[in-house]
């Protein structure tokens, strides 16, 4: 287990800056999630830490020691790739044993560690199969197995769940969270899915166009987004962002209000409009209301609310939960 | 049943092609077999008597036969070794990003498009000639005696010429295979602590196994019937030092005008080629299953 620190780290590809100079301190045992839209530089940042790309400037410290110039294998990190990158001609056993073989560990140690990893990951029955004979979830587990047998100082996950179907994704997400609790290892996890980020992270790093928008625990990002981008990215369904007169009323360029902070009424309120869509999820109902001059506003209501397309609804924001942003997209103090 | 029906239709549709192919292959084979059992000499226009297996006895006890058999396999092994090992090496080099990649790849591939007779003559007259050849000049520069390649090491010379022609083919096949190797696999191995050599042995080489099997199979088919290069350079000599099976059959027919024993030789070559083919198909089949 190790702490990882990035000091003024930046990365350019042929003169084009993909990661602007950034500082980040990751504590021992922490699970940090890099999240952002595709092309925001989150995977590049992970590959910089892994050593698969060279940093253009700045320093990378692992446990306080400079690792900027170390080759990947010497950094003591393990990585789980998006494609799993299993070795197709090797059995599951050989795949998991590969890092140990490369480290020239003796046969007994390898056997013991592989068996142990297989037990933790429920892979005992598949050890002699080839990767192509496994399902997506099993392949994922083999990739994790290969990562844990080395006993790395930190784990790196590069969008590990993006190739799985929705149900399996939720399962594996829980398994990864459970594994992190068991091993207590420092973990960096990259995803474009804000739900994964919210559920897994101790701290989230939100990246946009190579810049850090905000760093903080999930709920802090949810409650106090520092920028317009974070406000729009974290939370599902998205926060309603309103500009123009509605915003200048509050002395802001843009105001944001989350769907759960709007109260609905059939008779009175601040804004009114026709229901364009009502999503009945059972526990909740998300109502999309077309408000003249403001656009479509989403609001959360109780699951038993009976509204239909075309009905008129009134919406009133809870002003204590209003987010205000200036013209540059920075949050204004409440 | 629809599937039986389609199966029958499919067979019907395929039958003309299969019949043509069968005719194309079966008739010459049958004729060769027929001639091989008869005393058929072009220089002695008497009746072609049935002689049983006498032609085979004559061909198989010819001292040139064992030499040509050994030469056939020596050429095959030499060329395969050079092209596979050299091909993997060249493919690894060409896979790296560099300036003028397109031009370099084109140049590397070009020997494959030179006709075997032309390339063999160029090698014979411009490189290996003991008086005017480039190799002789290089030897002289270093004050050494010029080597008469085709006289002193005819089999080695032929191996070099043929390997030069086939190296681009192997390189091309192996390069395309190399390009289909998942970059994340290499990176994963790098993170798992494998150095460049270990990555080559454990990741790259197993990935190339199938392509190597294909290269070996295709080259074997062509190299067993190697002929043009021998004809225009050594003529099988000196003596029979560079005669392979195909050339021996040729010399029986068109130099000694003995069609009977040449046909027997042809049949022997067919049997040998089939024995080799069985092993090769096993090798390739095992690799294609993956």
Fill in the keyword field for this structure:
heterodimer; A: 334 residues; alpha+beta; Rossmann fold; OB fold (Dihydrolipoamide Acetyltransferase, E2P); 2 domains; 6-stranded mixed sheet; 5-stranded antiparallel sheet; 9 helices; 18 strands; 27% helix; 32% strand; B: 290 residues; mainly alpha; MetI-like fold; 13 helices; flat; Mo/tungstate-bd_C_term_dom (chain A)
Task: Walk me through what this model shows.
- By secondary structure, chain A is of the alpha+beta class.
- Helices cover 27% and strands 32% of the residues of chain A.
- Chain A is globular.
- By secondary structure, chain B is an all-alpha fold.
- Chain B has one domain: Orthogonal Bundle (MetI-like fold).
- Helices cover 76% and strands 0% of the residues of chain B.
- Chain B starts with a helix and ends with a helix.
- In chain B, 29% of the residues are buried.
- The chains are: A alpha+beta (334), B mainly alpha (290).
- At the A-B interface, strand 6 and helix 2 of A face helix 9 and helix 10 of B.
The tally of structural domains of chain A comes to: 2
Give the overall pLDDT of chain A as a whole number. Answer: 89
Strand order of the largest sheet of chain A: 6-7-8-3-9-10
Helix content of chain A: 25-40%
Q: H/E order of the elements of chain B?
A: HHHHHHHHHHHHH
Task: Note the gap between the termini of chain B.
Answer: 33 Å
Backbone CA Rg of chain B:
24 Å
Number of helices of chain A: 9
Content of β-strand of chain A: 25-35%
- Biggest interface, residues from each chain: A-B, 23 and 19 residues
Give the total of domains of chain B: 1
